[in-house]
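seq:
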Amino acid sequence: MVERKSRILYIKRYLEENSDEQHQKTVTDILAHLTGQGITATRKTVAQDIELLIEAGVDVVINKSRPNKYFVGIRHIELPKLKLLIDAAQASKFLTVKRSRDLIGDLLSLTSIHQAEDLKRGLYFDNQVKPKNENAYRTANLLLKAIIEKKRVRFMYYEYAPNKEKVYKHNRRVYEFSPWTFLWNNDHYYIAGHSENHGQVIKFRVDRIASPKETMLDAASVPDDFDPAVIAKTVFSMYEGPMLDVTLKCENSMMKTIVDRFGENVKTDISDPEHFHAKVTVSASKTFYGWVFGMDGAIRITAPREAVTAYNAMLNKAKSFAP
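struct:
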């Protein structure tokens, strides 16, 4: 019985690693593999073992032919999803090249060696955007541990001076922080939670946290109404201040941009044959005005007057920096 269990596991692993719809295996192939592993089997026992795998829920597809051919159909993760995850690991600015390669290796192990080779084609790592050390990765691990154990952490936080040197905020202030959830935005990793220093919910970019240490202090309790989606919307979108209903006059080609930014339910109406109006709720913030400016005149603010005035003031200030 022990030998049979071992044989079944070898067959399962062999099919998972070596078979797919384009690379189907025969009983002869399986027998050759088992023999190479020092395991005795017959055509009959292999067929019976495959039936047991199917009964156990492994999706071994049988292509009835002469001879019968076998391959693993549905896997833990579908190939298109696997490709998306691999592309994300490849492009991540948070992971070092080594960590990206390690993660991609783990992902590739979820499919056959043949499909893994197909997925590896075209992989490219841009060393210009990848971090050079694993400080951020280690910080993320510490923060995750603190979230699980519901403990506070302490750390310093830095930004960059005009000469690209690190400058610690507030003269190396040590922040005491209760981490609640990770947020991902624009290929940067953030941690959101309650800051004792600020007395409110705040976020920090993980890769700019310095000298993090977990404490034995219990973290502040997560409120029942805490919603990471709302936090992400507040921090990263155009909602940095008081909300304002704004009307935008947009060139027709900008509809995809408006929908991408504000969703399919955004209120729009046709203005003239070349333009439409979009009514959106944002804050009168630099983020919003900067976004409008980046549309190079294809999107313009028409109401309310206070938003138009504030936007023009920002444009005039930008002009004052011109040589």
